[in-house]
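Today's session is about reading a structure prediction critically. Students often jump straight to the picture, but the first step is always the sequence itself: look for stretches that repeat, for charged clusters, for runs of hydrophobic residues. Only then move on to the predicted structure, which in these notes is written as discrete structure tokens rather than atom positions. Here is the chain we will use throughout the hour.
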Amino acid sequence: MTHDPEAGPPDEPTCAGFGTAVGWNARFKQLIAHGTTALSVTFDLPTRTGHDSDTPAARGEVGRAGVAVDSIDDMRVLFGGIPLGEVSTSMTADAPAAVLLLLYQLVAEEQGVAADRLTGAIRNGVPWGPYIFPPEPSLRLSDDLFGYCRAEIPGWRTITVPRTDPGGPEPYEPFHVDPSVGTQQAERLCKLRAWREQSQVDAALARLRKAALGADNVLYPMKDALLARATVGEVCGALRAVWGTSARRSGPTPVLTAGTAS
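Below is the predicted structure for this chain, in token form.
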């Protein structure tokens, strides 16, 4: 989506593009320079189904229909130099919505932006898009996200109601998918795992699994795991180990709208 700077800032969130975090970041900066304060980001299918880019399940899909985010390192690149206290960000995240929002919060905190200054929306509803956990724990995760945002990020809208366009698919601009994106992401993951403190990651994931077994809000130990540089796939894998898995849901593709509930 493009925006004419002569027309003033757009009212709706403006989507940046596809592929790598570097490419999205450059587009975000271009949009902000033209007056945009509402950004929109769509994550690729592996990210939205809780798989790291170097897994067999991700082959051929990395960066294909959105940006690949595997860890806090990718989120830092995605929003590097973006004043997160001055923009509103809408995310199409599906099942790992909590994981990706926490990564966003961690990057904001590194910028010195308090969580209560963040504004935006995230698609978090269980019935829409691909889901990766059985229904009951999926609802539990949504409820934990609600509770966390009420306490920590009150300006965030945690459900964005989608609609199905009865007129068929919306027009889109063709985009080039760079086949090297998957290789780039795999190399980044290899470096991440080589440089992080694995014992800290393992301990944080163990605390997350313990919380998932009990009744505590899982977002707090999840945030600790992500800060220790656990990947999106590892965090989702820890929850799968406790909650089980669910087949990917098929159905109409929802379109993000302005209707929200918080």
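Discussion point for the tutorial: The longest strand covers residues 255-261.
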